[in-house]
Amino acid sequence: MQKIKINQFIRSFNDQTGMGKTILLIKKILLKMGFESNIYIDNNIEKISPEYNIYHINEFIENKNNILIYHFGIENERHNYILNLKDKKILYYQNITPSHFFESKLYKSKCDIGREQICSSVNQFFAAMTASNYSAKELIYYGYKNVKVLPLLVDSDIKVINKQKSDTFNIIFIGRIIQNKCQHKLIELAYALKLKGIKNFKIYIIGDNCFTNYYNYLFDYITNLELEKEVIITGHVTDEELMEYYSKANLYISFSEHEGFGMPLIEAMNHNIPVLAYDVTAIKDTIGSYGLFNVKATNTVADIVISYIKSNKKIEKLLQHQKKHIKQFENQYLENALSKYLNNIGVLDD
Amino acid sequence: MSLDDLEKLIKIQEKEIRKLKKESQTKDEIIDTIKKEVAKAIYHQSMALEHRIDQFLFDAKISMKDKDKEFNKNLKIIKNHLNICKK
Q1: For A168-190, b where at least 16 C-beta lie within 10 A, e where not — what string?
Q2: I need a surface site. Which of A132, A184, A249, B30 has the fewest CB within 10 A?
Q3: Averaged confidence pLDDT in chain A
């Protein structure tokens, strides 16, 4: 009997985003498990490096015996086309940011329509996966069956960077520059640290510009609070540059108000960087119970940060806890979990 | 207009330009100072608001815990009563 294929579809692919990394990791695990597996996309196929072996969805050959993992995170114009393919479908829900975070009508509607699509397609999927309990609860609320939390996100086989010594205490945050990630709070943190007499530090805001008005506002806020030396907005960085930032980072801080998971936080922990994050949505699933803060006031957070700047012991303790926590994201664990899940939903019996 | 008059006029206008430039520079500096003060005010105002939110949430959590305790206490009493009634 011919072995079934487990293919994946995503609207558009970017190897630097969480979704992109998830897809590559799932493909790697599926191939290791002995399945045939391809990735299909709809947009910008010409921009994808050939090394990834990615195809346009128009080249997809449907087969009712095969499985299609459909990655979903925002409105998809070809949603009905994908649903009408004969393959049995598993949803991988990447979570949709609530539209109230955005002022752009276009982005608002993309989020709202995306949510409508996900709510109205419950019966089209025989199973669903997602990265966090937070997202799983949402799927169960919509009525999805066979929902499994599988944080197939960070390839733990990737080499851990060597730490570089730096003259300054370096704080980083990685993520698209967008309102719900609250990068302005990092600027406020720098100001609070400065007011509290901390001098030798830098905060690197790393990520692509997604909303120009917010992006420009951040630069103005930095200039007006006279923090040009302390806060650096990098814009888009290459993989090599990102590794350079990881190698120099002493602390990772997230003020984000909404995370379906929070992949850079796992990456940071993988690179032995202590992570502090505002406890909201799926952050607790991502970093565990240590390193969370529950306060919004940045000058209170600054006191927490100062306690880490001044105490190596505290940093070591946090790292120890976080090392234990990230064991569940190691490839071997994820491979076993995925295999068990595919078995439970009857895929391995076919 | 004679050449002399024209030269005089040019000198007057150059002086006027220098004066206007200086004025506009001063205005830019004033605007920059205002921008900086507004940014600081935004920061402090935002801290004040966020402290109030944090305090409100903290109080709400405590109050929820107290209510939970009271609810569990009452539930225990009702369960005991039910057990007595069953007997």
Answers
A1: ebbbbbbbebbbbbbbbbbbbbb
A2: B30
A3: 91
pLDDT tens string A20-39: 888 998 999 999 889 999 99
pTM for the model: 0.85
Residue A299, chain B, CB below 8 Å: the answer is yes
Tokens 């790393």 belong to which residue? A206
Residues 6+ apart with CB under 8 A from B1: B9
Report chain B's mean pLDDT, rounded to a whole number: 93
Residue A101 forms contact with B (CB below 8 Å): no
Measured between alpha carbons, how far is A38 from A58 in angstroms, rounded to an integer?
A: 13
Q: Say which of A224, A294, A297 has its CB closest to residue B39.
A: A224
Look up residue A68 and give its two tokens: 């299609």
Q: What is the pLDDT of residues A177-189, one digit of tens each?
A: 999 999 999 999 9
Of the residues B46, B53, B55, the best mutation for testing chain A's interface (the one with the most A CB atoms within 10 Å of its CB) is B46
Please count the other Cβ atoms lying within 10 Å of the Cβ belonging to residue A120.
12
Please say whether the beta carbons of A247 and A178 come within 8 A. no
Complex prediction ipTM: 0.72
> Which structure tokens are listed for A218?
């951040």
